[in-house]
From TrEMBL:
InterPro entries: Carb-bd-like_fold, OMP_b-brl_3. GO terms for molecular function: carbohydrate binding. The keyword ATP-binding does not apply. Residues 460-769 form the Outer membrane protein beta-barrel domain. This is Outer membrane receptor proteins, mostly Fe transport. It holds the Pfam family OMP_b-brl_3. The keyword Membrane does not apply. It comes from Flavobacterium gillisiae. Keywords: Receptor.
Length: 926
């Protein structure tokens, strides 16, 4: 009995103790954005097991809340307010006084702004901006290029160059894979728009950066086209043919064929383009690689206000420049794309392509060059005929050896053949029209180029997360063989009177090889959950050989067998670079950054075999780099990049050889050239507001270059003969700014985009042994309006105004002009099946002191079409250049020269065409 009484007493005392263990909870509720108190918000405690309400209270006007006499234990704390999102957290009450501190609530409006709404036409997630293709209406059977022109923030230039958020797009992928190699134009020109489900725009990092998670600054603006699911089953394609009626054998024609077949993870696509209406045969990227001239760089500004560095004549195997926007071109372009994946471990991508172009153009060029107080005026006309072709093969094999090891092998080949002839007739005069020189020249080119590139990337992941090791080795070689003939008659005048004549009849034979081998080792070590360290070491070996021989024609033998020693040379170069690198990176949900540096130890060994002279140079460079990105909201990003990089002089610039292809504009090589070093910093930001459908993006960049490879020009003011030589200059810099603002006027369903831009460049050049500052200023403003209603109408209006200004320190004269480009596109549907569309382009160019005419031209096109059988068939009639005013005019300012060029253009013609879009016969339309 005593034991029972004792037990009752113990239980009673324990109950009193437990009852007495109660706590008070307190805290403050505020607005997460403006930090103001949140009044009258419910604060509740729930029991975790069954979510039954235990206690609740409300916050006062200061946002303070108190919950008294709370039993010790586990609870769920929840807040509720009709203007704010609920806040839920698990808490443990185990003390007498528990202060929860500040609880920040997000308003429902702000929360909605950050949610990725799947049904929106545009959505931004991380660094990727996505457009739902079906919300942007294009013609039946339109290609992807027409779709891109409708997307806010994306521009497609007249030369086919694509810009997204102000930056040039370098890659276009289809479902994450390359489409017919790495040429962006292949997908956008040949793939049907109605096959695309979504267009994604992002900065694609290098394979190494994607593997290690450490940003190496090597990224490319990329567009990924996600195909519709029903387009990835069976097959689909398009056949399009058009011809100019009622004409002779030289009528305009186009034939396009594209077919794609899908079976599981196997994808096969093939295309064939054949026509003579100027459709581009080589993509713009290939145009940069081939046919452009390789030395004597000039910074120029064109009609549209674009500032660029242009390689002018002077290469020893010089080829004619082919601009498919001008002249007349017959083109055949064919390609095959095969990709497959086995067992989710092996992936093969194979893409052969063939291209053939026959091109002709008449070019007339008027230029004015300021030399001190003297002005030289050149009037030149050139007729160009080109027959060229190339075969390319790209292959990629990616295999996962096991769960921690992978291997990627890439191979690219290109075989290129060019046969061409150029006939040039030029006259140069001075002040008052006093004759300085005359020239007639014929230059015939026969050249063969072959290139091979291979790379092997091995990646290994250790058991510890983010500890990785990789080895990337690459080798590429470019061989060029040329057999050229130069015939020219060159007359010099002094004070307008004939002085001398030099006739040239020569055969120029070139044999050039460039090869480069590089190996990069990389190891990453995690230091903390979000911090990692990267160690890398890169060694590159560059070797080049250029044997160039010039032979005079002999009247005795009737052959080109008299060697010209001053124009012949055998030259070799070897460059070895060792570059250790260390980087620290931080990766979190919102903030990512990396900072590091490398050291470059470069040695030049140049051997002039003809003169038996050797040039040796050694350099040590510091390569700092840093990147920072901040995701301040789900649909907003800020990114900053800094990088230091070197540029090596080319073999043609180093070789001490004189190029006399243009007798009055000759170029000498310079073996004493140094490598240049560039510091560049780039800042970019983009955001999209889903509720207001407003998009804002902007970018700011600044670049400064020491030892820039510029050109020294010695100009004889009497004969206007110029000798150019590459040199190094300092004090060069450039700055660029672009801004984009797009929004929708919802009351009238009108999309509006506004794009101002600004750029400034300063280049130091040498004229007659005197350093001169050349300054270029460009500002532009573009406005774009777009409105459409499915199967009713579509309308777009754009206007681009640009102002160009150039000055040099050799005199006080300022050269400037502005241009305006107006584009109007209208399409109207009748009974859903009929559509008439028209586009109008008006270009005006302001007259200048040097060119006294206001140049304007109007380009008006129209098309009538009728679709059949659910848009499977389309018949159409189109008329190009109704007003017959298509003219190729371009003005450019560079250094101390302003020029105006005119080119042949394809003028008014009409065509009748038919398109068949085919797909699986058993495929049902959604």
């Amino acid at each position: 009995m005593q034991k029972i009484k004792g037990l009752i007493i113990i239980v009673f005392l324990f109950s009193i103790s437990a009852f007495s263990q109660k706590a008070n909870l307190s805290g403050v509720i505020i607005d997460s954005k403006d930090k103001t108190p949140v009044y009258n918000s419910v604060v509740a405690l729930l029991i975790p097991n069954d979510s039954i309400l235990y206690k609740f209270t409300r916050s006062d006007r200061e946002g303070i809340f108190n919950l008294k006499n709370v039993k010790v234990g586990n609870y769920i704390l929840m807040t509720s307010n009709n203007q704010y999102a609920d806040y839920v957290d698990a808490i443990i009450v185990d003390e007498t006084e528990k202060k929860l501190g500040t609880i920040a609530l997000k308003s429902k409006i702000e929360l909605l702004r950050e949610v990725v709404i799947k049904s929106g036409s545009i959505r931004i997630k991380g660094d990727t901006t996505s457009y739902r293709a079906s919300d942007f209406k294009v013609d039946a059977n339109a290609n992807v290029e027409e779709l891109l022109k409708k997307l806010p923030g994306i521009q497609v230039g007249k030369d086919g160059v694509i810009k997204a958020m102000g930056e040039t797009v370098q890659k276009v992928l289809v479902d994450g894979e390359e489409f017919f190699g790495d040429d962006p134009s292949m997908a956008v020109k040949n793939l049907r728009a109605d096959a695309v489900k979504e267009v994604q725009v992002f900065d694609k990092k290098s394979d190494q950066a994607e593997f290690t998670g450490i940003d190496d600054g090597d990224s490319k603006k990329t567009i990924n086209l996600r195909l519709k699911d029903d387009k990835k089953k069976g097959f689909f394609g398009k056949i399009d043919g058009a011809n100019q009626p009622f004409t002779d054998a030289d009528s305009r024609y186009n034939t396009n064929l594209l077919i794609s077949s899908f079976k599981g993870k196997r994808k096969v696509s093939a295309f064939l383009l054949n026509g003579n209406t100027g459709q581009d045969g080589l993509g713009w990227e290939d145009g940069e690689k081939y046919g452009a001239r390789d030395s004597n760089i000039n910074m120029s500004m064109d009609d549209d206000g674009n500032v660029s560095y242009e390689w002018a004549s002077g290469n020893t195997d010089d080829e004619p420049y082919v601009d498919t926007q001008n002249g007349f071109i017959k083109n055949t372009n064919a390609g095959l794309q095969y990709s497959n994946k086995w067992n989710d471990k092996q992936t093969l991508n194979l893409s052969p392509k063939y291209n053939k172009q026959i091109y002709t153009n008449n070019n007339s060029r008027v230029s004015q060059t300021q030399v001190g107080e003297t002005q030289l005026n050149e009037n030149r006309s050139t007729t160009t005929n080109v027959n060229r072709g190339n075969f390319k093969l790209n292959a990629t094999y990616d295999v996962k050896l096991d769960s921690i090891n992978s291997l990627k092998i890439t191979a690219k080949t290109n075989f290129y053949r060019t046969d061409s002839d150029e006939f040039t007739n030029g006259v140069t005069t001075g002040e008052g029209g006093i004759l300085k020189n005359k020239q007639e020249k014929t230059f015939t080119t026969n050249s063969d180029k072959s290139s091979l590139f291979t790379s092997i990337l091995f990646k290994h992941k250790f058991a510890k997360a983010r500890r990785t090791f990789s080895v990337n080795s690459s080798w590429n070689i470019l061989n060029t063989n040329s057999d050229n003939f130069l015939k020219s008659s060159n007359e010099s005048y002094v004070d307008g009177e004939f002085s001398s004549r030099d006739d040239v009849d020569q055969n120029k034979i070139g044999d050039k090889t460039n090869q480069k081998f590089a190996v990069n080792f990389s190891y990453t070590e995690p230091l903390a959950k979000k911090i990692a360290l990267q160690f890398a070491y890169q060694i590159t070996y560059d070797k080049g050989m250029n044997n160039y021989f010039t032979y005079d024609y002999s009247d005795i033998t009737g052959k080109y067998d008299v060697i010209v020693n001053s124009l012949s040379n055998e030259f070799k170069q070897t460059m070895i670079t060792n570059r250790p690198v260390m980087k620290l990176s931080y990766n979190a949900k919102k903030i990512n950054y990396s900072i590091g540096s490398g050291f470059g130890f470069t040695s030049f060994d140049l051997l002039d075999q003809t003169l038996d002279k050797e040039y040796k140079q050694k350099y040590t460079n510091f390569f700092p780099s840093a990147s920072f990105s901040y995701k301040y909201k789900n649909n907003g990003n800020l990114r900053v990049n800094y990088q230091g990089a070197t540029t090596q002089p080319t073999l043609d610039q180093l070789q001490p050889l004189r190029n006399n292809q243009d007798f009055f504009n000759q170029i000498l090589g310079n073996p004493d050239l140094k490598q240049s070093f560039t510091n560049s910093i780039n800042l970019s930001q983009h955001s999209y507001d889903l509720l207001t459908e407003t998009q804002i993006y902007q970018g700011l960049s600044f670049r400064t270059t020491s030892n820039l490879i510029s050109y020294s020009r010695v100009i004889d003011p009497e004969t206007a003969k110029t000798i150019s030589k590459p040199i190094n200059t300092n004090g060069n810099f450039s700055g660029n700014f672009y801004f984009g603002y797009g929004f929708k006027v919802k009351k009238i369903d009108l999309n509006v985009n506004l794009n101002p831009s600004f750029s400034y460049n300063k280049t130091v050049l040498s004229i007659n042994d005197k350093l001169i500052n050349s300054k270029n200023l460009n500002s532009g403003l573009s406005l774009f309006l777009y409105k459409s209603k499915e199967k009713k109408y579509d309308f777009s209006l754009s206007n681009t105004f640009s102002f160009n200004r150039n000055s040099t320190s050799q005199n006080d004269e300022i050269k400037s002009f502005n241009t305006n480009n107006l584009n109007l596109n209208i399409g109207v549907y009748f009974r859903e099946k009929w559509k008439i569309s028209t586009d109008y382009n008006f270009v005006s160019r302001q007259k200048t002191i040097d060119f006294q005419d206001n140049l304007t031209n109007q380009l008006w096109n129209a098309r009538l079409q009728r679709t059949f059988k659910s848009d499977e068939f389309t018949a159409y009639i189109l008329v190009k250049d109704i007003l017959n005013q298509n003219i190729g005019i371009n003005r450019a300012i560079y250094q101390n020269t302003i020029s105006e060029e005119r080119n042949d253009r394809l003028k008014r013609y009409a065509m009748i065409g038919f398109t068949w879009n085919f797909k699986n016969s058993g495929e049902s339309k959604k």
